[in-house]
Amino acid sequence: MMKNNSLFSLSAVLLLTLVHYPAHAENQILDEITVRGQKESPKDESLTIREVRESPARDIGEALKQVEGISYVHKGAIANDVVLRGFQKDNINVLVDGVRLHGACPSRMDPPSFHFDFAEIEQVKIVKGPYDLSNPGGLGGTIDAQTKNPGKGLGGDINLSYGDWNSINAAATASYGTDSYDGLLGYAYKYSDVPKSGDGKRLTEIYPATSPNRYKSNAIDSKAYEINTGWGKFAVNPTENSRSEISYTYQDADHVLYPYLKMDADYDKTYRLNWTYRIQKISPLLQELKLQAYWDKVEHLMDDRFRFSSQTSPRFYSMQTDAQTQVYGAKLNAALAIGPGTLRTGIDYYNRNWDALNRRAMYFAYRDTAMLPDVSIDNLGMFAEYELPLGSQFTLQGGLRGDLTWAEANKTNTLITAGTKRDFADVSANLQLTYTPVKGLDIFSGIARGTRTPDQQELFLDVPVMMPSATSNYWHGNKELKATVNHQADIGAKYSTDRFYVKASIFYSDLQDYINLYQLPTTFEKSYQNIHATMWGAELGSQVSLDYDLFLRGSLSYVEARNESAGRPLSEIPPLRGTVSLRYDNGTFFFEALENLAREQDRVDSGLNETTTAGWVTTDIKSGINYQGFSVILGISNLFDKQYFSHLSYSRDPFQSGIKVPENGRNVYLSLGYKF
Asked: Which helix (H) or strand (E) segment is 4 a member of?
């Protein structure tokens, strides 16, 4: 358990950042302070590719833990699932260039953030709370990864990282641009053996010797994943105020191990296609028009061939799920100068199909079961939001969104018959006020209503078992679920200068018909139900440029959530977390030391057998040189080889193992890069 004085020390250091010191270094860190301090709303955050490249993160989900208010679900060596202010899964939108992207696995082996490589990405923008009206859903917030755009002339970059457990991240991009057209090509390769935790054991060695979910001896030290990703982007500029752009990405992930679950992925294949056309300054009234069309598809196959559960099965596996999901959609957005303000409006449509076939030796001899019965969800929505300056100190912004959603199953399972339908009609809205009493100080307040409809799994999932038991639950959806409504209030403040910023915010959410996994009383059966829940939380982030090219940065975040219907804490909520870092950076050479801290999480859901997780403290260090396009970074994460667990290291769905997965132990990594 972390001692209380550690938290007091952290708070004290954060308060020191309220003092402004002059500094001399003119470098990228100062530019980022300016962007965060002067260009971001108190409700918004961002993560740059520079921050990702300096970390040992294997995917965007892991990299985002640097941002206050964000945690992740740790399943193994990769494919970390993002958690924003305690909201996760479909309660948050995870987009790429505004494109909806979903994983295919019913147990979320492959969350959306797994299906793009961070070498594609220039910046990740985060909206905290239901304040993004341009996309449906986003009950708890929106995370939008924005891909790189080519510059003028010939350009490119090459990056290679190598770390413990034979971890390799290699990527290269090349681009060429003129005033009339531009293009970009990229390729990335990722590979790793199974990481070890602080006790020296591999993550594949966490199961007891009697567990059927333990790995076979030939799989314990196998590769943890191997991923190839290629992408391209081409654009033409028909006029000086218009641009048409098309991009395509293909990703092939092979042999991905998930100790968190009872199965592992044989493969994940991802296809993404996106086209946009934008024209600006059309007339004094019509400032911008943007048309977007997209398509993406994920194919996912998982089984237990590497586990002892398959040892005596007639086939090479005892259970297997073959799943795929496909999304296509279109958007038309416009910005209009009306009166003293700007009106942004649009209409959008998407279709998501999700199909999953489950086969098990113990359930009618490998009979195909429609785990997800080929369900299509269609959504048609419209929104309008108006931003109005009120003098020089106030800005008022408000908007409204309406959505019509249809869900239909095209196959029959033991829960529903083909043709079963559900229809939903939802309204979202928000009102935001920003007050700038003096230069550099922004005070933000907002109230919002956010909604999201149940997904295919929550409605129609069906995983029957021959003989339900404590270790083999009947897991199914609930076709009567209602859409969740989040009534949220936020207040925040940000103060910044050229070399300093501090940002603080607090939120409260009242969640009507929140969709929650639950154990049915007196039965071995799990399903989903609507409950009344509440959440509240706060974040504090700051960064200051000191004398002698020193930079001090710190963050705190906390969420508390309660299942009001059952009178107990809500499950899978991260504890109080914080970071403190000190960095020397003269624009060429840098050295940084970072402390990561988490308090014990003892607010747990006894109804799902959730257990307390101890607090922890870890130390990371890194150093690097940047010179004329070349970069060299040497780092050590978890310097003292701490054995610890994230509270989100295990989950209680029936197809999940219930075993806690420890975080990685000491990891020494070296990164080389060149940009031109």
From this structure: helix 4-16
- 25 burial (CB, 10 Å; 0-12 / 13-18 / 19+) is buried
Burial 154-164 (b: 16+ CB within 10 A, else e): ebbbebebebb
- Number of CB atoms found within 10 A of residue 304's CB: 24
- Phi first, then psi: give them for residue 417, nearest 5 degrees: -105, 155
What separation in angstroms does the CA of 122 have from each of 18, 60, 372?
A: 30, 11, 35
* pLDDT tens-digit map of 167-181: 999 999 999 999 999
Residues 670, 164: contact at Cβ < 8 Å? Answer: no
Task: For residue 671, count CB atoms less than 10 angstroms from its CB and return exposed for 0-12, middle for 13-18, buried for 19 or more.
Answer: buried
Residues 266, 222: Cα–Cα separation, whole Å: 13
CA angle 24, 548, 578 (to 5 degrees): 105
Please tell me the total number of residues recorded for the chain in this structure: 676
Q: Which residues pair with 390 in a beta bridge?
A: 394
Q: How far apart are CA 135 and CA 452, in angstroms?
A: 11
Query: What CATH number does the domain located at 24-675 have?
Result: 2.40.170.20
For the stretch 464-479, pLDDT in tens is 887 766 666 788 999 9
The per-residue DSSP string of 326-378 comes to: EEEEEEEEEEEEETTEEEEEEEEEEEEEEEEEEEETTTTTT--EEEEEEEEEE
Q: What mean pLDDT comes out for the span 259-267? A: 93
Distance of alpha carbon 60 from alpha carbon 49, whole angstroms? 10
Q: What is the CB neighbour count within 10 angstroms for residue 585?
A: 20
DSSP 90: G
- Is the torsion defined by CA of 266, 196, 160, 99 positive or negative? positive
b/e burial code for range 518-536 (CB count within 10 A of at least 16 → b):
bbeeeebbbbbbbbebebb
Spatial distance between the Cα atoms of 327 and 94, rounded to a whole number of angstroms: 14
Domain ranges of the chain: 24-675
Q: Could you report the per-residue pLDDT of 313-322, keeping only the tens digit for each?
A: 999 999 999 9
Instruction: Give pLDDT, residue 473.
Output: 76
What is the residue-averaged pLDDT of the chain?
91
Q: pLDDT per residue over 28-81, tens digit each?
A: 777 676 666 666 766 778 888 888 888 888 888 888 888 999 999 888 999 999
CB atoms within 10 A of CB 235: 18
- Specify the 3-state DSSP secondary structure of 564: coil
Q: Poorest-confidence range of 34-43, 279-288, 588-597?
A: 34-43
Helix locations, 19-116, DSSP H? 28-34, 49-53, 60-63
pTM of the model: 0.90
CB 172 within 8 A of CB 156: yes
Q: Is 632 helix (H, G, I), strand (E, B) or coil?
A: strand
From 502, 488, 506, 603, select the one nearest 545 (Cα to Cα). 502
Q: Which of 235, 298, 245, 283 is nearest to 98 (CA)?
A: 245
Nearest residue to 555 (alpha-carbon basis) of 77, 95, 21, 47: 47
pLDDT bin (cut points 50, 70, 90) of residue 654 is: low
> Which residues are paired to 179 by β-bridges?
none
Beta partners for residue 175, in sequence order:
155, 184
In angstroms, rounded to a whole number, what is the distance separating the alpha carbons of residues 479 and 515?
12
Report residue 327 as tokens: 């999304």
Phi first, then psi, for residue 456 (nearest 5°) are -60, -40
Short-list 138, 135, 178, 139, CA closest to 155: 178
Asked if residue 53 lies in contact with residue 66, where contact means CB atoms within 8 angstroms, the answer is no
